[in-house]
Each structure stands twice: as C-alpha cells, then as structure tokens.
Amino acid sequence: MTHKIIIDTDPGIDDAMAIFYAALHPDIDIVGMTGVFGNVTADIAARNAIVLAEKMGQAIPVSKGANVPLMMEPNGVSDYVHGTEGFGTMPAQPIKGAPVGEPAHEFICRMINENPNEIILCPIGPLTNIALALQHDPTIAAKTKAVYIMGGGLDKGNVTEYAEANIWNDPHAADIVFAADWDITMVGLDVTTRVQCVPADFDRLEAAAPKIGGFLNEAVQFYFDFYASHYGKRGCDMHDPSAIIALTDPQYFTIETHALEVIVDGARIGQTVRSADPSRPKHKVPMDVDVEGVKQRFLSMIETGF
Hints:
41% helix; Inosine-uridine Nucleoside N-ribohydrolase, Chain A; 11 strands; six-stranded parallel β-sheet
C-alpha cells in the first residue's frame, strides 16, 4: 500500500533525515512539502525542502508557509541547533526549482480536497500551517486519512522543563490541531529521545550511500556539537525520522490513546497534556518504542540511497 504524504517541515538536520527516509521508502509517495518557521525561517525552510527533493532526484511541489506563530511573538530560529542555513555549517545550497505560488495552508487544503481520504499529513515542525489549513477549510479534518506529528511529549520537554520545541514555537496552533476530530498520532519526546544515533552510524551511511549519507554525515556534525555541549554526549536523538517510521512501521511502537491539549500561557507554555475535556477527541500517543528496531529501520533505509 502506498502512503500519499505531505511533509510540513522546517529543515533542519533531523528533518533532512526524515525526508530522505520518506523519499527512499518504496511505500511512500511524497505528494508535497510545505515550509514553516522553526529551525529556520519559512523562506529557508521552503528552499531547504527543495534542496532535499532535488538531492533525491524527485520533483516534489514545495509551498512556503507561515513565518510567525498564530498569536504570539516568535521565539526565534534554532540556529544554535541546526546552523544558520539549517544544515549545520553548510552554506545555503543552490536550487534549480522554486516554491509554488500557493500558500502552504491553501496547498494543503487543495491537495486534501482533490484526494479525499488519501492524504496523510506529516508535520515535523511547528503546527502553524496545519492550524491555518483547518481555519481555512474545517472540512479537511474529515477528509484527511491520518496525521503523524513529531511534537510534544506527555512526560518531558526539551526547550523547557515542560515543552517540546515544535509545540512551544506555536502552542495556540498545536491546541487547534489537537482539538480537531481527525486521526492523529503524536510521536513525541516520550519515544524520540530514546532512539539515538552516534557518529559511527553516519559514517556507515556515508560509506553505503555517499551522496545522501555523506550529506547527512556532514550536516550532523554540527548537531553532534550541540548535543555534546548541552547533554555531554556526541550523538543525536532521532526526533523527526521516528514520526515517519511510526507511519511505516507501527509495530515498533506501543500506543496509548489520550485526548490532548496544550498550555498556551504562563510558565508551562507549550506543554502538551492529557485533557479532561470530554469534547476533545482521543489521539494515538506512542509511549514505548523498540529502540533498536526504529534505529536500524532508519539506517537500513538510508543505506538503499546513492
């Protein structure tokens, strides 16, 4: 079965890992990508999505999306984690194509309406574009096959004690998305921080797939530097790839179901919590993971590259 997906992304080093995994997977058809602020600006996000598509030799339409949150002042890009241009120390990468003229939220709505019950949304950045799409056309929730989110975490944060970065960057948007009645799987820090790769893993990828693996190996060195300075380990958590792997290989994840909401102000802003509101739909939340299964699935897929 082929999964038709739209990846909403702020590339980003682990975004690149997720996009390469999806592009190489024989059962995934990336029918579009949309750029959003977060790790980088929305302009850089759209450009980097095109960079990654072109490196894979795939003609994927890319739409530029929101550059600021729905209701609050932006927190600023995560250049200290991903580098000024998003791929570590690499300069801006040249592209042959250009973003489509359609704004991301309109592109998402059009694609879902043209392919009812076929599109899977895979947001791996802040959820602003997805919330804007819901506001633009609330009927898309009933026409979307599924939504796989990298974000949140019921028992931990990373940018603060409480909040995960994607949700923290636009908590109001995330709360709108979790309130909608559609099939969400929230792949959060409860599992993504447990799946980790180390330098030898990326050396292995470069040896097997010099172009794709070599690009990742070069970009990830900056990521490793961040982890070494902040967490005392030279490695990285596999946040964004885990969300795509939860789609292709759900057998690696132990799922709970919870209604979700997001705290939108105060000291705990951006925290994703279990909701007691009976009007909220329940969503799937992986709370345990086959760490080695997910890691090897990622590595073995990238090794099929070139």
